[in-house]
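Protocol step 4 of 6: structure prediction from sequence.
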Amino acid sequence: MDPLASVSEELAEIDGQIADIFRALSNGFQKLEKVKDVSRQSRQLEELTDKMRDCKRLIKEFDREVKEREGRIDPNTIRMLNEKKQSMIKELNSYVALKKQHQSNLENNKRVDLFDGPSEGFGEENVLLASSMTNQQLIDRGHHMMDETDQAINRAKKVVQDTVDVGTETAAALKAQTEQMSRIVNELDSIHFSIKKASKLVKEIGRQVATDKCIMALLFLIVIGVIAIIIVKLVNPHNKDIRDIPGLAPPANRRLLWSTPN
């Protein structure tokens, strides 16, 4: 019975998946040594790299499962699990080193194919062309090639100058846009300050209007009360329950100081 299965089924399952990946990596690198085609080697290296990524992910899951069970299993089992994890990491690192070696060899092969392939025919063609030309033709050919080189240099200088000009124009445009953004920010700050000030004024005006409305309502009630008292006094002047309004009381009977004799 697998000792990991007695600890956790999840650990045993992860260990089995890692073992399968290690077997696939071993077989893959053995097959890779027999492949001569550069493109096929590149494809197989990519597949093996994907398998190594999966193996690294599984080792992290294994370590996470071990840490979750540290408080529930005995120290000897913890030591065994840690040693198992270290052996997995060591084996994975060996395959990573093997992959780097094959990748370096593959890059060297590509570089050799790149420089060695077309250069032979091109060199032989130049030798045959030069051997069939006279000295004057060689001199003319040299001058022509120098002229072409000068033209290429002039074109390169023009491209560089155009690039510098475009860079200068771009820098100037960026500076102008930066200044414009600064002005916009300042204007926005001013607008925000004006809005806050206007809001305060509106609130003060609202409070004043509310106070004026209260005063007008009170005055209106007083006027209505006075009018009502006047109407009642006119309708029933002998009603003693209603007091006279100062200034509106009927004139009292005045006795004359002297009277004409009969």
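Step 5 (inspection) to follow. The two ends are 156 Å apart (CA to CA).
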